[in-house]
Amino acid sequence: MNNYLFTIGVGVSDRPSRWQGICTIYGHLARGLTRMGHRCRFIVNPAAFDARALAGLDAAPGSHADVAAALAEDTWHNGFIWGGRIAPDAETAALFAAGNVPVIYSELGWFPQKGTVYFDRLGTNSQMSFDTPPPLVGLRRLRFAIARRRACRTIYGQRFGGPARPATARQRVFVPLQDETDTNITQDSPFPDMDSLLRFLSETYPDCHFTARPHPKAAPSDLSSYPNVTLQDPKANPYAELKTFDAVVGINSTMLSEAAFMGHDVVCFGNGIAKIYGIARHADPATPPARLQGPENRDQADAALAHLFLDRQLRQKRLSSPRYLQGTYLKQMLDL
Asked: Does pTM top 0.85 for this prediction?
């Protein structure tokens, strides 16, 4: 029997209720592990505690002091931290390290985010580990092609295949903007804010026309007006017009990975999953590419997309199934 200690938003003071949904995700995994005979315990930020999602599990609201006490009371096989990118998470990780407990980080998946999750020993987003994708050949290539086309229809409501319009000299470029307070921007972006990104794109590529979509939950209020930039209604379906654009450009938004998955040319200027796995062309603002185009090695990018879609991201609800867990990388990661 292994012992697993789950922490959710412990020590977080900035809107900790945002972590409440993690109770459901970790709850699925804990039930799967419990059915396999393992022990799971939860320590949750009081403002994020969801009694219904954690019903029947050993779970209670708590603080870092409670994490320290739990580590002193018992031996733990692994400790779980959601995200791991903010100071309270670092404090939790330090407690695990002091107790010689290996940490497993987790975050939402990509295709789509809703309903999926991934786990990593190093971290999440730009801090996640890189494992070489298996070759995309034979049955694996066929399996991915079928799954990719089906997913593009069911998830995004469009067929796979990139832009429907022929490329023109004047590129039409879609720019998904992000939450400026998110760690993806505060830690991994070469631009301090969204207006800086739009100014750079407008001045660097005057022959392009950019359609920028403000983040629906954190639209910046200080965007300037640029002659070749228009704003999309953040309430509009972002995928409805995607095929009318020649390229998708951004910092490290999940929409960049989604656009690459759908077959679009994607360029990223920040650190994140798109850069780590080469599913987008990574560009440096100091030496920007002459034209906004996707990665040169499309076969390598497709192999990475297949790996992320078929292997790395897991289905949240299926985590409660021991049989499902035994067929994923969690079998080895958790020593099941």
From this structure: yes
